[in-house]
From TrEMBL:
It comes from Neogobius melanostomus (round goby). Pfam families: Amidase_2 (PF01510). Residues 15-135 form the N-acetylmuramoyl-L-alanine amidase domain. CDD domains: PGRP. Residues 3-129 form the Peptidoglycan recognition protein family domain. This is Peptidoglycan recognition protein 5. It comes from the Eukaryota. Belongs to the N-acetylmuramoyl-L-alanine amidase 2 family. InterPro entries: Amidase/PGRP_sf, Amidase_domain, PGRP, PGRP_domain_met/bac. GO terms for biological process: peptidoglycan catabolic process. One of its GO terms (molecular function) is zinc ion binding.
Length: 149
């Protein structure tokens, strides 16, 4: 499985100040959207990416914390899960088929490389917390991602 992955080094990320490794393969995947209200420069957030991966609407996958690392994306649920964020706000806009395809490929790659349990469970953030994340339209597309297994 090939994923068009932009590594931290490629996008100029600062090394994380703190990095905890997952104790085993992730059992759960939590899908988010970034829902940025204003398009200010991302640089100030680059040392504090809480998601394991981010996926652009063109299907490009950006490495956040990466595989096998505890993220900071879903309060109380980070220790055994992988957080993937689609870049954008999906309250009203639908995620692109390119972005969904990339997430599927990423999940398959995670399973084949042993970072994800083959029987992993996929959630939307709103399943686990009091939030609208990942937006109604993306949430409605989650069954397509579950079928990726
Ligand atoms: Zn979220």
């Amino acid at each position: 499985v090939s994923v068009n992955l932009v590594t931290r080094t490629q996008w100029g990320a600062i090394a994380p100040r703190h990095k905890d490794c997952l104790k085993s393969s992730a059992e759960r995947v939590v899908i988010h959207h970034t829902a940025m209200r204003n398009c200010k420069s991302n640089t100030e957030h680059f040392d504090d990416i809480g998601y394991n991966f981010l996926v652009g609407q063109d299907g490009t996958v950006y490495e956040g914390r990466g595989w096998g690392v505890v993220g900071a994306h879903t309060k109380g649920h980070n220790a055994d899960s992988l957080g993937i964020a689609l870049m954008g706000n999906f309250d009203y806009d639908s995620p692109s088929s390119e972005a969904l395809m990339s997430v599927k490929q990423l999940l398959k790659a995670g399973v084949s490389q042993g970072f994800l349990f083959p029987q992993f469970v996929l959630f939307g953030h709103r399943d686990l917390g009091n939030t609208k994340c990942p937006g109604a339209k993306l949430y409605a597309a989650l069954p397509q991602l579950r079928s990726a297994k």
